[in-house]
Design goal:
241 residues; six-stranded mixed β-sheet; 9 helices; 38% helix; binds adenosine-5'-triphosphate; binds magnesium ion; Amino acid ABC transporter ATP-binding protein; ATP binding; transport; P-loop_NTPase; amino-acid transport
């Protein structure tokens, strides 16, 4: 995935300022930065939930169009997992996972259900298929959301602070699933406040500030010796507790 010179304005406010970022196949990139630095906006523009003011996003050599039928098809290549799980409350866990593949991809229902059960197994929820989301814990709901995104066979997965709405004891079970995906070779962009996770799982850390990518480095060198003053200041606040 190649993000080239993406700028995004909300009115007069520049939320993304000439952001360029390449994510190679199988690579895990962690995006960190202070609140308001543009991390969610970056995820949303990559998935075209927001239009861009300038720049382009190219996946597997194919530019994402601004709108239309082709966008809907290409958008399915990008799986997105948000802080809020956004599951359909009145549908079973299984239905939540099969809905998009059957409706958007026209996968036959038995086939989609078989795949959904495999994915539930993978995220450790094989026995929860018949439940409604409200009958699950937050960590379990987030794992359903991950299974739902994977059901579309995305080329890239975007995670926007997938654990920040969770109680501490549930964070690990979700991070374990994401780590497992990383190990399996999934290409991923993960916005996270979990510095330990970024350090151990990511191939690369991207630090954002004021809508810009300020620093990009391997986790070990970023966390031990950030190059910029802004990154040093950020790390000293998040690592101090
Ligand atoms: N729809 C919108 N309209 C106007 N401004 C917006 C909109 N969405 C985001 N912004 C602004 O853009 C900036 C970047 O927001 P964004 O949500 O990308 O930050 P973030 O890095 O994800 O922060 P956090 O860590 O709190 O999630 C913020 O100043 C925010 O107020
Ligand atoms: Mg955000």
């Amino acid at each position: 995935m190649r993000i080239s010179h993406v700028t995004k304005y909300y009115g007069d406010f520049k939320a993304l300022d000439d952001v360029s970022l390449d994510i190679h196949r199988g690579e895990v990139v962690a995006v960190i930065g202070a609140s308001g630095s543009g991390k969610s906006t970056l995820c949303r523009t990559v998935n075209r939930l927001e239009t861009v003011s300038a720049g382009s996003v190219v996946i597997d050599g194919v530019p994402l169009p601004e709108e239309g039928r082709e966008l809907a098809r290409l958008r399915a290549d990008v799986g997105m997992v948000f802080q809020a799980f956004n599951l359909f409350p009145h549908r079973s866990v299984l239905d939540n996972i099969t809905l998009a593949p059957t409706r958007v991809r026209k996968v036959p229902v038995p086939h989609a259900q078989q795949r959904a059960r495999e994915l539930l197994e993978r995220v450790g929820l094989a026995d929860q298929a018949a439940k409604r989301p409200a009958q699950l814990s937050g960590g379990q709901q987030q794992r359903v959301a991950i299974a739902r995104a994977l059901a579309m066979d995305p080329k890239v997965m975007l995670f926007d602070e997938p654990t920040s709405a969770l109680d501490p004891e549930m964070i690990t079970e979700v991070l374990d699933v994401i780590q497992d995906l990383a190990t399996s070779g999934m290409t991923m962009l993960v916005v996270t406040h979990e510095m330990g996770f970024a350090r151990s799982v990511a191939d690369r850390v991207v630090f954002m500030d004021a809508g810009q990518v300020v620093e990009e480095a391997e986790p070990a060198s970023f966390f031990s010796s950030p190059r910029t003053e802004r990154a040093r200041a950020f790390l000293s606040t998040v690592l101090s507790h």
